[in-house]
Amino acid sequence: MSVERIAQKALERLASQFPIVGITGPRQSGKSTLAKMTFPDKKYITFDDKNLRELAKSNPKDFLLAIPDGAIIDEAQKVPEIFDAVKYFVDNKDSAPGTFILTGSSQFKLKENMTDSLAGRAAFLKLLPFSMSELNTTTETFETPYDAMVKGCYPPLYDTKKHFLKEDWFESYLDTYLDLDVKEQINVGNVVTFRKFIQLCATYSGKIVSMDSIAKNLGISSPTVKQWLSILETSFIIHFLEPDSNNLGKSVIKTPKLYFVDSGLLCYLLRIDSVSDLILSPNKGAVVETFAISELLKSRLNRAKKANLTYFRDNNGFEIDTIADWKHTFAMEIKSSSDAEPKLSSNVRKYTELRNDIQCKGSVLYLGDLTCTINNVNYVGWKDWGTFFNEL
């Protein structure tokens, strides 16, 4: 199934300005497919090909001379020498914008090499798995929002030629992630503990992180927990919302909230296998909130914009699920209700009154199909979570 990616316009925009564009994102999010879809006439090279890899390693500058018009270079991190060669090439050839598009599955090596070698010459696009607005353009249908949450949005799960079962796919995904990404970042002897760490982090999705609690549960140090959380964040397994700083002067929480980037992976780790499992799960609210935050993230990153999402909690426990500091400021509550009831908006109404800022708009993200405005509060149906705010 071919899905037109919203990020294509942002990739074209960046490639019209910078000689090098790096596409980062989690494994299996469709980075290579996006590059080839956006630039069908550009030469495509993958360093998965051992012969090309050895050739590029032996003489990277001459290798690039064979492609004077540039190329899409996939799995670029497998030939670290190529980054300095690309830098030399674009500096000495007065290269046109969009000469090189670099992608790779290992975000640690790709971003490290691009940041070190190509600063000022490259732009980055972060590509997450499919958004609901992308899936809505296909023949894929979900009877309920819970179906989408349990399945998740990784592209291979929607490839009709491959027929993956989600449980098998997620198991393989984690094995590959641990073997090819994590193992080089931690002591090899800690891989089993790191897998338990991911499982434990799933119970914190939508919650404030307690590093001490995680450390105690796993028998590791708090600094190790901090390092491992950074690994999960860098590889796009999780995302953090920092506490909001505003003029209310009441937010005393300093610790971020953790969210998994994909609700399907989260459900797999929580052993939620079906819609009925999710509906009856004590983690239902956390999964719904995770799915909503993911859609908001995609709406920003697909346009190559910073997420600019925070959360608010004061010393009395009053909380707003997320504050989006975009063209306007949106105070958003995320609810598992399928009815647009006025009581759902009580917190955002209170927050906007406290804030006393006409640019701050209250919104409720809920599980209904109808998107509407009631008494100046936006009630946004689940299919529109990733697109509604783009128009405001």
What this model shows, in words?
The longest helix has 18 residues, at 284-301. The chain starts with 6 loop residues before the first helix and ends in a 12-residue tail after the last strand. Helix content is 40%, strand content 16%. The protein has three domains: 7-126, Rossmann fold, CATH 3.40.50.300; 132-301, Arc Repressor Mutant, subunit A, CATH 1.10.10; 309-391, no CATH class. The strands form two sheets. The protein has a nine-stranded mixed β-sheet, with helices on both faces. Strands 2-3-4-1-5 form a five-stranded parallel β-sheet, sandwiched between helices. It is built from 16 helices and 14 strands. The model has no long low-confidence stretch (mean pLDDT 92).
Task: Quickly describe the structure.
The chain is α/β, with parallel strands linked by helices. The chain has helices at residues 7-15, 31-38, 50-58, 60-65, 81-92, 107-117, 132-135, 145-151, 166-182, 191-202, 211-218, 222-234, 263-269, 275-280, 284-301, 346-355, and strands at 20-24, 44-46, 71-74, 100-103, 122-126, 207-208, 238-243, 257-260, 309-313, 319-325, 329-334, 360-365, 372-374, 377-380.
Q: Count of DSSP E strands? A: 14
| Model regions low in confidence, pLDDT < 50 over at least 5 residues | none
Q: How many separate domains? A: 3
Q: Would you identify the CATH architecture of the largest domain?
A: Orthogonal Bundle
Radius of gyration: 22 Å
Shape: globular
What would CATH call the class of the largest domain?
Mainly Alpha
Count the DSSP helices: 16
Give the ordered list of helices and strands: HEHEHHEHEHEHHHHEHHEEHHHEEEHEEE
Assign a percent range to the helix content: 40-55%
Report the sheet-strand fraction: 15-25%
Distance between the termini: 31 Å
Structural class: alpha/beta
Average residue pLDDT:
92
The largest sheet, given as strand count, sense and whether it forms a barrel, is: 9 strands, mixed
